[in-house]
Amino acid sequence: MFRKNELKQLCILLAVVGLVSACEMKNNLDDMHDATNEMSDTTKQMKTRTDGLDNKTAELYDALRQGNASLLRKEFLDAMKASNEMPKKLALGVKYFWAYEFQLWSMDGLDDDARREELAASAAREFIREIHELVPQDDTFISPTSSDNSEKDFLALATTMHEVNDKQKNRVDKLSMQRFSMLFLFERALSEKRLMSEGKMTMNEIHPSSYDLLAFEQKMVQILQARHNFILTMWLAKASNIDKGLWNKINLGLFGSRWDFNMAKFSDVEISEMNKWLKAVSDTRQLLTLNGYEVEVDSTILKVLRNSRINTSKSAVSTSRESMETAILENLKTFMK
């Protein structure tokens, strides 16, 4: 772009060679200069308006997400309470946890790192209070074979609290970020409590979600105890191969005799899933013991487990299959102590 003094010199030069009159050239170039400046000002105004529109759009999305996610959680909880079948309660529990906003954090707009922690804290506050109404307020042990519908809802939520929405996985895994689940928030809260007790962290340094959860520490422990026992009971139902009748037989005291858990009867996929369940049980036990809580095991479930005869596959199996069966054996030995 020419400066005005440069334009004048160019005007005079062109006039000398007879191409155009100096006056005409000056006027034209002045007009071009003014038009260019006006275009620059217009562009700046458009950018300001676009930035403002982006901010409003981000705010609108955040507000809509908050409202929609809240309605979905209520819908899933209501459906869970209306259902009597445990498999359906578990499926609804998964959807309930998927509908928390921290699961839908997008890394765009208002969703920076601070916002993610805000959403986690909001979820922790809601969940720990929401689950209070399902069971007695004295934080008593909840039987994994309970027939009370509210306690079954409690068990379903305790069992599915590790769930992570696929949307979150796809977003945070690309950046090697920590996946958030309600179980992770529990783990972090208890870890930070331990650090505080060791003098390595102050209350003002813990995450907001940890503060909200630790305000109901005994409820957290009750939830983890329920998670441990119910997943173990699910495993027994699968291992015994009589899923539909296990709960009734346990409650009626008809499962006191010896029974066989023959791994050869199960496919690789089934063994893999059963191994995952036992790992979840083991991880929950470790979380409790690491933080100074004694693990409570339902006495009837423990009796049934100790009455099992465990047989590994006899035929040639793959290394991965052998590894999974070994892991199952090791976990079961620990649980039977």
Q: Work out the oligomeric state of the chains in this entry.
A: single chain
> Unreliable stretches, pLDDT < 50, 5 or more residues?
none
Structural class: mainly alpha
Q: What's the overall average pLDDT, rounded?
A: 85
Could you estimate the helical fraction of the residues in percent? 55-70%
Helix/strand order, N-terminal first: HHHHHHHHHHEHHEH
Extended strand count: 2
Count of helical regions: 13
What fraction strand?
under 5%
Strand order of the largest sheet: 1-2
Major beta-sheet overview: 2 strands, parallel
* Gyration radius, in Å: 32 Å
Shape: elongated
Terminal-residue CA separation: 85 Å
Number of domains in the coordinates? 2
Structure commentary:
- The protein has 337 residues and is mostly helical.
- The protein has 2 domains: 133 residues, no CATH class; 113 residues, no CATH class.
- It contains 13 helices and 2 strands.
- The protein has a two-stranded parallel ribbon.
- The termini are far apart.
- The mean pLDDT is 85.
Attribute tags:
mainly alpha, 68% helix, 13 helices, 337 residues, two-stranded parallel sheet, elongated, 2 strands, 2 domains
Note the topology.
Blueprint: H1 4-16, H2 22-82, H3 86-98, H4 113-130, H5 149-160, H6 166-172, H7 182-197, H8 208-214, H9 217-240, H10 243-251, E1 259-262, H11 268-290, H12 299-306, E2 308-311, H13 319-336
Quick overview of this protein structure:
With about 325 residues, the protein is mostly helical. It has 2 domains: about 85-215, no CATH class; about 225-335, no CATH class.
